[in-house]
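Help needed: design a sequence for this.
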């Protein structure tokens, strides 16, 4: 008889956790007071399965927040912040961040406990952003005397406002394609146009 292997069980466990976290995001975004039982039902698993993976509701919320911020960091890395031209990196990262934040709004809205893995990840996100903005300043996209921490805060605020666009997005009557209010790439362009040029005309557009 072949020797047993734990790999399938480990893969199953990872899938189970992923399904539970995805269900938790959906349920808690709609009702932040939802119970573990409601999350289990939405995930299509037994309540005991949820309790086996997470000791209590707070442990589940903490794991959800940690998973979401790690996905946010990966979205930033995928935009090649240290190697792509600054404007290209800014656009890619902004679109990626809008996708992740749109999908994990509840999780990413949770305050991180000081000293937690999520808090450390958020610090790394802020540091990554400042480094990219410094590259943008060196490349002439920002004023030479721009206060990068202020620019970062404005950038975050613009992303937050862009996310408010998504609930009211309409669909094109011909092919069902979503309009610019739902498209992360179009929203990223809007965010960066406002960040870099304000309400004034873009250079070359009069």
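Sure. Designed sequence:
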């Amino acid at each position: 008889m072949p020797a047993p292997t734990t790999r399938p069980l480990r893969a199953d466990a990872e899938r189970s956790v992923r399904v539970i976290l995805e269900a938790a995001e959906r349920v808690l975004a709609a009702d932040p007071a939802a119970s573990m039982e409601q999350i289990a039902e939405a995930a299509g698993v037994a309540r005991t399965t949820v309790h086996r993976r997470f000791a209590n509701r707070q442990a589940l919320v903490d794991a959800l927040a940690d998973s979401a911020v790690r996905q946010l960091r990966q979205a930033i890395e995928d935009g090649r912040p240290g190697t792509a031209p600054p404007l290209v990196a800014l656009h890619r990262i902004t679109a990626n961040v809008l996708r992740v934040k749109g999908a994990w709004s509840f999780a990413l809205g949770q305050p991180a406990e000081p000293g937690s893995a999520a808090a450390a990840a958020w610090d790394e996100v802020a540091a990554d952003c400042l480094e990219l903005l410094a590259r943008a300043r060196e490349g002439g996209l920002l004023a030479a005397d721009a206060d990068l921490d202020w620019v970062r805060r404005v950038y975050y605020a613009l992303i937050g406002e862009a996310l408010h666009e998504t609930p009211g997005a309409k669909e094109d009557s011909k092919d069902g394609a979503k309009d610019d209010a739902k498209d992360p790439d179009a929203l990223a362009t809007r965010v960066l146009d406002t960040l870099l040029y304000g309400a004034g005309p873009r250079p070359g557009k009069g």
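Confidence is low (pLDDT under 50) at residues 5-9, 167-178.
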